[in-house]
Amino acid sequence: MALNGNGCCWIQERILSGNGCGVFLTPRSRSSAAILPRKSTALSFSSSFQFQGFVVDRKQSSSSIQTAAVRHLVGSVTKTQGLRFAVVVARFNEIVTKPLLEGALDTFRKYSVNEEDIDVVWVPGSFEIGIVAERLGKSRNYHAILCIGAVIRGDTTHYDAVANSVASGVLSAGLNSGVPCIFGVLTCEDMDQALNRAGGKSGNKGAECALTAIEMASLFDHHLK
Residue 105 contacts by C-beta under 8 Å, 6 or more apart in sequence? Predict the structure, then answer.
């Protein structure tokens, strides 16, 4: 507190705002106040409000925002040279899995994957897909593993156990090996649903999953090494 020449009382007080910014209130007289804001080279925003008879201009400092270019990493389906793939196929329900495999191989050819860069591994059923996919992934001979099978609901709860186990097995194979393992296993209510998705009116899921395998292999090979 200090008295100036005309007897007015000057009080300087520091107030901390929620974000740590400081303002100084210095009344011109006993009934009014003025602000002495801190000097700052940063951008600032101000607002005014009434506070117990004082007119307060509050200033908040904010750092200058520097924007940088955002990188978008996307796998390519056209750069397939040098990429190697394994396809694990369940023999059970072969009437479904065989056209799924044919759709996958046809897609690989369309996207210029060399046939010598594709290995097809047959397993008894969908339940065995996961462990084989993991072994292939850990061999480091392949850029992606495509898993093909068909689990169709029957009269017992066997369907639920197998479908859940297969999905978990394929996921674990990819996580444990570090190689993309693509889930191309159909889980259908009946045979008609399965056939419709193996080249029927609903398309060929084997072909779709092969395209996913190409994109993931490219993403890992070019961006995520």
Answer: 87, 118, 120, 210
Query: How many CB atoms lie under 10 A from the CB of residue 128?
Result: 18
pTM of the prediction?
0.70
Q: How many residues does the chain have?
A: 225
Q: What digits encode the pLDDT tens for the residues 1-18?
A: 555 555 555 555 554 545
80's tokens: 């397939």
Tokens of 179: 């190689």
Instruction: Measure the CA–CA gap between 189 and 194, rounded to whole angstroms.
Output: 8
Among residues 143, 158, 222, 223, the one annotated as catalytic is 158
The reply to whether 158 belongs to the active site is yes
Q: Could you give the domains of the chain?
A: 2-61 (no CATH), 85-222 (3.40.50.960)
Return the closest-CA partner of residue 151 out of 129, 179, 118: 129
Q: Provide the terminal-to-terminal Cα distance of the chain, rounded to the nearest Å.
A: 66
Q: How far apart are CA 83 and CA 79, in angstroms?
A: 9
